[in-house]
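Technical annex, item 7. During the second reporting period the consortium partners agreed on a shared format for inverse folding records so that results from different sites could be compared directly. Each record opens with the tokenized structure and is followed by the designed sequence. A conforming record, contributed by the partner at site C, is shown below for reference.
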């Protein structure tokens, strides 16, 4: 067998790509037997399986997942689309999706939209071409047109949305109670004596940010606080955006005494501006972020924030996919799994 193996290694070096037939020729068995051995088929003896695995390793055999998917109708791959990966929230969601799916024999393909609708559409096309068995996604800030997400549904594979999603798609959704989160934050600031509370929010066309804005407005009304248009600002919620919006608020004749920011990154930018302008935090202006990113406990002062339970969101998204993967016909309906949130109180609002 060593001579035969040496012979085929030379051939492989020339053609560069090992196939099941190459392994079969070395062992003098059928390609079908090799395939069954690689898939741990019970009809193949342990001795043959061991020999096949050894030769496959020696020849650096790499399975062709796309070809396998075309033959079996299952790729054991799941696409995950996130706005960005450099966020503790999204990286935690991804980690927990992967941990759950790996145990069931699935691998994931991660793409990020960078909040771009165009990149999101390109990711969907790529994942569908790769024959993924399902897609788990959180929408980009720019996304208004749902045509590409409808395209996933038409492909008859499960679509699971988390954090950012739209009810109109009628698919599984896992997230938090964004509306109530705003109530929790406003109530917290009111208890600290704040009376003029500003909100730096995301764009209204994104459902979660719209819900946070509605919650903020209703919470002000509930506490008999004035709602001023100048105190409600929409933005992209990046660090730089947080800086710009905080500068805008500080330019007001009647400044706010508290600022609720719908993202920790934008809250960090706002914090930088407050410190640069020697504003006492929280005595002059209290600050609350959203997301409980790790840096919120490391800044000076530390930033009060909302914990979104990212680990559970990731696990629930994976479980939702697996429930559909076990059925022959994918029939999705609007199923919401809404998790409670927790306010992590820190120095930036602790008067």
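Designed sequence (site C submission):
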């Amino acid at each position: 067998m060593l001579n035969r193996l040496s012979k085929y290694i030379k051939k492989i070096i020339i053609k560069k790509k090992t196939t099941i037939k190459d392994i079969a020729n070395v062992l003098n068995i059928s390609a079908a037997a090799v395939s069954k051995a690689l898939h741990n088929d019970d009809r193949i003896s342990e001795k043959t399986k061991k020999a096949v695995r050894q030769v496959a390793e020696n020849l650096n055999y790499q399975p062709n997942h796309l070809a396998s998917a075309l033959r079996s109708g299952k790729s054991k791959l799941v696409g995950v689309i996130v706005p960005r990966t450099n966020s503790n929230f999204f990286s935690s969601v991804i980690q927990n999706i992967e941990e759950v799916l790996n145990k069931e024999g699935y691998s994931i393909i991660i793409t990020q939209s960078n909040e771009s609708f165009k990149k999101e559409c390109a990711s969907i096309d790529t994942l569908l071409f790769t024959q993924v068995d399902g897609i788990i996604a959180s929408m980009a800030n720019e996304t208004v047109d749902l045509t590409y997400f409808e395209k996933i549904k038409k492909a008859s594979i499960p679509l699971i949305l988390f954090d950012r999603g739209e009810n109109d798609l009628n698919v599984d959704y896992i997230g938090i109670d964004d509306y109530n989160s705003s109530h929790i934050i406003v109530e917290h600031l009111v208890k600290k004596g704040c009376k003029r509370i500003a909100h730096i929010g995301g764009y209204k066309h994104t459902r979660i940010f719209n819900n946070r804005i509605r919650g903020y407005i209703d919470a002000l009304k509930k506490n008999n606080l004035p709602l001023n248009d100048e105190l409600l600002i929409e933005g992209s919620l990046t660090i730089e955006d947080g800086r710009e919006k905080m500068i805008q608020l500080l330019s007001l004749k009647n400044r706010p005494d508290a600022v609720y920011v719908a993202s920790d990154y934008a809250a960090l930018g706002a914090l930088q501006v407050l410190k640069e302008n020697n504003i006492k935090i929280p005595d002059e202006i209290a600050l609350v972020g959203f997301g409980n990113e790790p840096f919120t406990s490391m800044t000076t002062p530390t930033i009060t924030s909302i914990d979104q339970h990212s680990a559970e969101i990731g696990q629930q998204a994976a479980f939702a996919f697996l429930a559909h993967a076990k059925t022959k016909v994918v029939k999705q309906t609007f199923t919401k799994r809404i998790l409670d949130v927790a306010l992590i109180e820190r120095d930036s609002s602790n008067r």
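The chain has a mean pLDDT of 90. The two ends are 78 Å apart (CA to CA). All partners now use this format for quarterly exchanges.
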